[in-house]
Design brief:
365 residues; alpha/beta; Rossmann fold; 2 domains; 8-stranded mixed sheet; 16 helices
Length: 365
């Protein structure tokens, strides 16, 4: 049987995600961000709710991306996620994209010219942001064109790079409806951005989310709920350069900007430069919020939920892969668990995220 991997945030899960799962073949394994997501912000609802949403709409197994995989630039995010899915036995990767290219050919180009392409990246001017550098690399070596705001396409290229040489078939699916950052309401498929923005509009949410009641009844958070805690961390930390990926320049910019801004978004605007993109600054602020430091990724894979089919697949893997279904005295990943505890501070009704939590189980669809 085909085993398909999907890398996702489901922030929150919407009809476009349901469509993607429907297009995926065979057993469907989702590697999903935990309580903080790739662009550097808290997930609107917790990881257990989002895992349940996915399982109720076609996923067979949902595993968690460790914090230092989930909250990373596209290349690191993709590499870490593909590594986990590869260990879980996927033979193809399905993903949504604004531009359906032959990503398999692109993966082959990278596997054949990796050293040359990475050397090219290193040779580019330092004043370019990393996304700008990678775009130039793909344009130069694979003839890929970039038009406007296409984050899923950029992730697709990162997936191609991560899958190079692993024998994983890439299955891009044309993104349906609104663009990733679209805030529009009059569309066939609303984006997660639009749903987060219009979350108070119950009719809108119900129209574009298959699990709208589950979403609407769950505690919801945003950066605003962590603003004061973030400021406290910035103002009291003796040396921000101890935090993951914070250099002296960023530390100084953040310390200076925090005194004259009144929201996280204002802080991002003030700290960001051509070199330090807003997404990178948001990730840096997330690292500061949770006190992230550089550390090794866990060997074990944490399971958030499964169907009967997914559970059977897990049983077949247990001899070759260390699986964690319940976190006890021994941590699965200390940093992810620390991030979970910080996440819980964002809303008084957020349930326990770690201790005693067992995988969500759903009946096979």
């Amino acid at each position: 049987m085909t085993v398909t991997g999907i890398i996702a945030e489901f922030n929150p899960f919407h009809n476009g995600h349901k469509y993607l799962l429907k297009q995926a073949e065979g057993l469907k394994i989702v590697a999903m961000s935990g309580n903080f997501v790739q662009r550097g912000e808290p997930a609107i609802v917790d990881k257990w709710i989002r895992a349940q949403m996915a399982l109720e709409n076609g996923a067979d197994l949902v595993v968690e991306l460790p914090f230092l995989v989930a909250v990373q630039s596209a290349d690191h995010f993709a590499k870490g996620a593909v590594e986990i899915l590869s260990r879980l036995g996927i033979d193809q990767l399905t993903f949504g994209t604004e531009a359906v290219l032959d990503y398999q050919v692109i993966a082959t180009v990278y596997s054949e010219k990796e050293a040359e392409m990475e050397a090219f990246l290193r040779s580019l001017p330092e004043d370019l942001s990393y996304p700008q550098k990678t775009q130039k690399m793909w344009e130069t070596f694979a003839g890929v064109e970039f038009t406007g705001d296409t984050p899923n396409h950029i992730l697709g290229l990162a997936y191609a790079k991560a899958c190079a040489g692993k024998g994983i078939t890439l299955k891009p699916i044309k993104r349906q409806g609104a663009g990733y950052h679209s805030e529009e309401k009059e569309v066939a498929y609303a984006s997660a951005t639009s749903i987060r923005l219009h979350k108070e509009d119950q009719d809108f949410v119900a129209k574009f989310m298959p699990n709208s009641q589950l979403f609407q009844s769950a505690p919801q958070v945003s950066w605003e709920d962590y603003d004061q805690l973030l400021r406290y961390q910035i103002l009291t930390h003796p040396d921000l350069t101890q935090i993951f990926q914070v250099n002296e320049e960023l530390a100084n910019r953040i310390k200076e900007a925090v005194r004259s801004t009144s929201s996280v978004e204002e802080l991002v605007e003030k700290v960001a430069t051509k070199r330090y993109t807003k997404a990178r600054v948001r990730r840096i602020l997330t690292y500061i919020l949770v006190g992230a430091t550089e550390q090794a990724l866990p060997d074990a894979i944490h399971v958030l939920g499964f169907s009967a089919k997914g559970q059977a697949h897990l049983k077949g893997l247990k001899k070759s892969v260390e699986i964690v279904t319940r976190i006890g005295k021994e941590p699965w990943d200390a940093l992810t668990q620390q991030a979970d505890q910080v996440y819980q501070l964002g809303h008084p009704q957020l349930p326990e995220q770690i201790w005693g939590r067992v995988p969500v189980r759903v009946e096979d669809q």
